[in-house]
Each structure stands twice: as structure tokens, then as C-alpha cells.
Specification:
S-2-haloacid_dehalogenase; 11 helices; six-stranded parallel sheet; about 10% strand; hydrolase activity; elongated; HAD-IA family hydrolase; HAD_sf
Length: about 230
């Protein structure tokens, strides 16, 4: 398929790195932190109980689904309050979480591919997550980072895609959004007027009849190769 790509918007979690190992590490890091700083909280909320509290907090607050940081703070607030801990521990606990959240392990192909892609076209991060590209150490590869928390709505809301295109100064049809999630990334971007590239590492079946990705690869390196071939 041949069409102009003047800029790329890029998902982060499960596109550049798998999130599952990060989530597991976060759970253990928080528990270990609580054992030192608030033993009563650690005793009341071992790893599985804290995970259940986090899921319930997410389910009970659909109006905050665009802001995962706020949901994490709500989870920590309830755990600290229920265990009789002081609220002065909230921000240090959040910082322990956030440091672990930004310790990522890239997919083997992803970092080299990202460098190659960023050398071709401007790349903007568009994510529903709360990763910090500066902490991770790849901020210089991106024109900017636009998160759902900052925008006020999460993908697949078309507004976040439109806002990214406006900041890039590129027409929507010449921006390629790249991500792993068939609905939130690819279908959402296409419905918003962008091109959509599915990074389908697990050979999943495409779920949307009548709507197809503009591009599909099983690695981010596949996209880098495609851009190189068209240069």
C-alpha cells in the first residue's frame, strides 16, 4: 500500500515494550515499599489484595479512566486510610510506584526501529498510559508526548488524535497512528481520519469487519523497513 506519511503518532505500552512485566513489578515494588514504610498497609493489602483494590477502584470510577495516575492515587489513598496510615505517605508511595512504572524492557526490535522511524518522520507519543519518556530515556526521539490525562479523554476518542495532528501541523490523512490495540489504536485512528498501522505481535485476528488497517506488521521493525523502502 502506498500513501504519504508525513508524521507518526505512536502508542507506547505493548507497542514499544510489554506492559505485563511492568505491572507485576509494580505490584511487588509497592508491597515491598509498604512493608518498610507502612507495615499495617502491607499486612492488610498483600499483593493480590492490592491488585483487587486497584481493579475495583478502576471499575468504580469510569469517569477517571483517562487518568491512570489519579486512579492509582485513589487506590493508594484507600489502602492507606483503611490501614490507619498517615496520608503523608501518599506521594512517596506514588513515587515508588511511578519509578517502577518507568522501568521498561523494550521488545527486541523496538528501540532500533524507533530510532530508524524517528530519523524519517516526526514521531509523537499518543498514549492512554502514564509512562514518562524522559524518565525512560527516549524523550529526544519524540516531537512531543500527548497522554489521555493531559488531553482529558482517552483513545479511541477522536479528539486526542486530532489534537496530536494539530500539534504536528500535519493533515490527518497524512499522519499514521501506530499501536497494538485493534480498537483503541487502529480503528480509533482510522475513524478519526488518520491512517492506522497495527503492530500485531501475537498474530491476533482482526476484529472489525468492513474496516481494515492501512498497514500491519508483527514487529515495529516491519514499519521501519516499510518507511526505509519508500524513502
Amino acid at each position: 500500500m502506498n500513501f504519504p506519511v508525513l508524521a507518526i503518532t505512536l502508542d507506547l505500552d505493548d507497542t514499544l515494550w510489554p506492559f505485563a512485566p511492568i505491572g507485576a513489578r509494580i505490584d511487588q515494588v509497592l508491597h515491598d515499599w509498604m512493608r518498610v514504610h507502612s507495615p499495617a498497609t502491607a499486612a492488610m493489602y498483600p499483593v493480590e489484595a492490592m491488585r483487587e483494590l486497584r481493579v475495583r477502584t478502576f471499575d468504580d470510577n469510569p469517569h477517571l479512566h483517562y487518568d491512570l495516575s489519579a486512579l492509582r492515587r485513589l487506590t493508594l489513598t484507600e489502602a492507606l486510610q483503611n490501614s490507619g496510615a498517615g496520608m503523608e505517605l501518599l506521594e512517596p508511595a506514588y513515587e515508588a510506584f511511578y519509578a517502577a512504572r518507568n522501568q521498561v524492557e523494550f521488545y527486541p526490535d523496538a528501540l532500533d526501529a524507533l530510532h530508524r522511524i524517528a530519523a524519517r518522520v516526526p514521531v509523537a507519543a499518543v498514549s492512554n498510559g502514564n509512562a514518562d519518556l524522559q524518565r525512560i530515556g527516549i524523550g529526544e526521539l519524540f516531537a512531543f508526548q500527548l497522554g489521555s490525562r493531559e488531553f482529558g479523554a482517552a483513545k479511541p476518542d477522536p479528539g486526542i488524535f486530532h489534537a496530536a495532528c494539530e500539534r504536528l501541523g500535519v493533515e490527518r490523512g497524512q499522519v499514521l497512528h501506530v499501536g497494538d490495540h485493534a480498537e483503541m489504536d487502529v480503528a480509533g485512528a482510522i475513524r478519526a481520519g488518520l491512517r492506522g498501522c497495527w503492530i500485531n505481535r501475537d498474530a491476533q485476528a482482526w476484529p472489525h469487519a468492513g474496516l481494515q488497517p492501512d498497514l500491519q506488521f508483527d514487529t515495529l521493525a516491519g514499519l521501519a523497513d516499510w518507511l526505509d523502502a519508500r524513502a
